[in-house]
Amino acid sequence: MSVERVARVRGLGTVAVLAALSMLVGCGSGEDEGEGANAAPRPSGTTRTPTPTVSSTGSATSTAIELPPLHAGFDYQIGGAYPPPSGVRIVSRDRSASPAPGLYNICYVNAFQVQPGEEKQWPADLLLRDAQGEVVVDGDWDEVLLDIRTPAKRKRIAARVDQWIDGCADKGFDAVEPDNYDSYTRSQDLLTADDATAFITLLSAHAHTRDLAIAQKNTVELAGLRAKTGLDFAVAEECGEYDECGAYAKAFDDRVVVIEYTDSGLRKARSGFGDRLSIVRRDVMVSTPGDEDYVRKTR
Length: 299
Description:
The chain is an alpha/beta fold.
């Protein structure tokens, strides 16, 4: 089974930007990881409750969207699906996988960049190009960025991503996680934060028509625009390691799932937010059990 992509490891670039934000948000405390023996899975027949959202035009709407449970056991399985460990109530999997029965399932899609080797599956004019006509590549993952600079191109790209979102809904996922919201920071200044928020707002509007919640993936500097973009919760990589958890917690009312890739990051996330957020430590390649690099910890 092909893997959509593996988790992005954050660099140090956001630390200075977020210093002021993190000072504004108080830290929680406690050691409850939310994965005890009494943490029962969500029944598959749970009724969705109406949740206020924001449409692509900025007007308030109400759709039957179920948000992830607060401070619940979480596992990040975008590198390959496997039976969730005991106590897990939330799981994120690649869009090519099936949801885990009885749990809250988040569907991963690579929305702002192109999977390696799939460039020819996209119209050439939708690939971001520099002044010399060369495609702009995210060097860490060898992924070409998509050109979301104009409303017309955003609409065409969204139409393709919306098909993936439809697939998530048809499979029975509860939410969608569009990755690379922060691709504008790797675009050689060709893309802007306004481009990114305009595009994610299109995806939010479509996800809500399919009764899916939609996550903000990383990009904490834009978390304050939640109401404008219609995003419902956050999926934050290494927010403990880089002191970003407080900003996400404030913006999304503690509706945050956290992935740390180091023991130090796990300790920091748990020390400040262990009684408030859903936190897991995974290996950077999000391996499956049996792989020699597989790591999953909650303390």
